[in-house]
Design goal:
alpha+beta; 9 strands
Length: 204
């Protein structure tokens, strides 16, 4: 397992990472489309990733979907045929431009601070210098609030997750047991970092 590939969000002419989602299954679920991706790369265990954006009318749009369909032929999604494109999610790209009806919020961020890098799962929001919370009602963008100062305060209050002891475990981890051997973290911690929801990521 490796650090996971974030979904992207194009906002105000900049590409951000989506680092926490209030209702992940309501934003987009791969189960809702006739494709069954497999793990293509350890940096994208779920086998898909997406880029979202806003229309001129502030409508939330699923712009592009990157994925694979294992060894099976790739179907059309919402009437759109895939094109060949290599990414951590797979070998397919769907240019969907699909309007979404999501109600809720999510956090977007950029300018990652490598000192807070975790070697597995999704990175925490406060590991980024710039963080915004965007809110939507039935897919319409309604509000943005900066969480950058709150993220900075968290960096003051909490030490980096990979301290000197953990770095030694990462380098000389052969004595550790179980599937988390390579990380020096227990399975419960690893499962939390694999969860992108507010339940595990929203700390402000």
């Amino acid at each position: 397992m490796r650090a996971q590939f974030f979904d992207g969000f194009n906002f105000n002419d900049r590409k951000y990472s989506i680092v926490a989602i209030e209702r992940p299954e309501e934003l987009f679920s791969i189960k809702d489309v006739p494709i069954r991706p497999t793990m293509f790369d350890e940096s994208c265990i779920r086998g898909w990733s997406a880029i979202y954006t806003l229309s001129d009318g502030k409508q939330l749009i699923l712009s592009r979907l990157f994925t694979n369909n294992g060894d099976e032929p790739a179907p059309a999604l919402y009437g759109v045929e895939p094109v060949s494109f290599h990414s951590p999610a797979g070998d397919l790209q769907y240019n969907l431009n699909l309007s979404l009806t999501y109600t809720g919020s999510f956090l977007i961020a950029y300018d990652f601070i490598h000192e807070y890098f975790m070697p597995f799962g999704f990175q925490l929001p406060h590991a980024f210098k710039t963080v915004f919370e965007l809110s939507f009602e039935n897919g319409i963008y309604t509000h943005v609030e900066s969480r950058s100062e709150a993220a900075r305060q968290l960096r003051i209050n909490y030490e980096p997750p990979v301290n000197s002891r953990k770095k030694m475990q990462l380098k000389f981890g052969t004595a550790l047991k179980g599937k988390s051997q390579e990380h020096g973290f227990d399975d419960e911690i690893i499962s939390q970092f694999m969860d992108i929801s507010y339940d595990t990521k929203y700390l402000f």
